[in-house]
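Hi Y.,

Following your request, here is the sequence exactly as I used it, all 220 residues.
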Amino acid sequence: MKHMNWRTSAPCLLGVAAVLALAPLAAADSPSVDTKSAMTAAIDKPAPDFKLTGIDGKEYALSAFKGKYVVLEWNNLDCPFVKKHYGSGNMQALQKKYTEKGVVWLTICSSAAGKQGYYDPAALQEMTKERKVASTAYLRDPDGTVGREYGAKTTPDMFVINPEGVLIYAGAIDNKPSTDPRDIATADNYVSACLDASMAGKPVATKSTVSYGCGVKYAD
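Below is the corresponding structure, written out as tokens. Let me know if you'd prefer a different format.
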């Protein structure tokens, strides 16, 4: 796949078998703004560095994790697609499994003030504790700078960066674009497949897909 087309999006096509058979997944709704103009991330290229503040008050820079695998998970705790993966415990299980293997997992919320999913750090501390979020850190990106750099379109939208700092996967968490937790058991998880293959020294079979979920609630 050529770099210029790696995050080609599609309109709302959930449940259309013909589209699903082609592998890329469709977004449930569109982001508030066009993220393409600012996107600098590209598969097999160095991932754009960034600094964001976590809800714990600490600053996190991607460059500080050079030498480690890093997962970026775009999040909106009010999104039904996110609730599917957190309500079932699927996302927390993935976070725990891979952070125990030394992977850095950064959950990022790019919801702007006044938009769905936007909360102050104190509220997010309570919400993430209640949901037993097991990521390395929960980061806020309310101006959407980092989200736009990565072309994050939906929640969830997943990115995997290897120890050399190269982006090796971007897109959907799995191939079941639904809000039904029962679909998780039969889904092919692209994030797990990418990490497992790369950590074993094998090539990543699927490097990009079109993510599905709620559009990232960027500022207008």
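Residues 31 and 215 are 4 Å apart (CA to CA).

Thanks again,
Q.
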